[in-house]
Amino acid sequence: MPYCADAPSPARARTTTVRAVFLDRDGTLIEHKPYLRDPADVALLPGVREALAEALDRAVKLFLFTNQSGVGRGLFTMDDVHAVNRRMIDLLGLGASPFAAICIAPETPFEPSAYRKPSPRFIHEMLAAHAIDKESAWMVGDSPVDWEAGLNAGIRTAAVVADPLAAQHEERRAALGVPAHATLLAWLRSCDQCRSE
Fold first, then answer.
1. CATH code of the domain covering residue 142
2. What is the pLDDT of residues 30-77, one digit of tens each?
3. Of 12, 144, 155, 182, which is least surrounded by CB within 10 A?
């Protein structure tokens, strides 16, 4: 079963639209290492801590949305995924819960999937649960399934191409019309919609 944990949140009363960013993990926030299971191997990509700190300062809600087919393939466990996520959060140094919610989709590409990207289900659920307008939400990731999940959800979508392997997806990115940025920080600083009103 997918693990989609919604962190406790304050009352939803608000006078302005809440902004949100759905973030891929591997290749977007941390270095892409195939079937990563050891927390000691976690390394943040350049500018990620600064980008997330700025987003939080701008009252942007952050959601982690990651496919982890290694669980479905029997290569590691959900506990391993949680340990990697904890290490990433420790390295970020932005508190124990910088993400409003986390979705880990453990299915392989070859089995029925509820949450595995490019499914937009997690995005739809979180937009509804947090009373977020589609127009003020983004999906940011380094691979076609990330971009397709955002587009399938009807939200704005951007590519981070810091991982050299992402070059193989350039044709698909162009076909989808998804803008590319060298780093997450570069995207954030170019994104007027991510600023608080």
1. 3.40.50.1000
2. 999 999 999 999 999 999 999 999 999 989 999 999 999 999 999 999
3. 12
Q: Rounded to the nearest 5°, which phi and psi values hold at 56?
A: -65, -40
21 residue type, one letter:
V
Nearest Cα to 65, choosing from 104, 30, 98, 106?
A: 104
Supply the range of the domain harboring residue 79. 16-194
- Within 35-143, where are the H helices? 48-57, 69-72, 78-92, 121-129
8 in a domain, yes or no?
no
Q: 101: part of which helix (H) or strand (E)?
A: strand 101-105
Q: Which residue has the tokens 């420790």?
A: 90
Q: What would the pLDDT profile of 130-184 be if each residue is shown by its tens digit? A: 999 999 999 999 999 999 999 999 999 999 986 556 677 888 999 999 999 999 9
User: Which positions ≥6 away from 87 have C-beta within 8 Å?
Assistant: 39, 40, 42
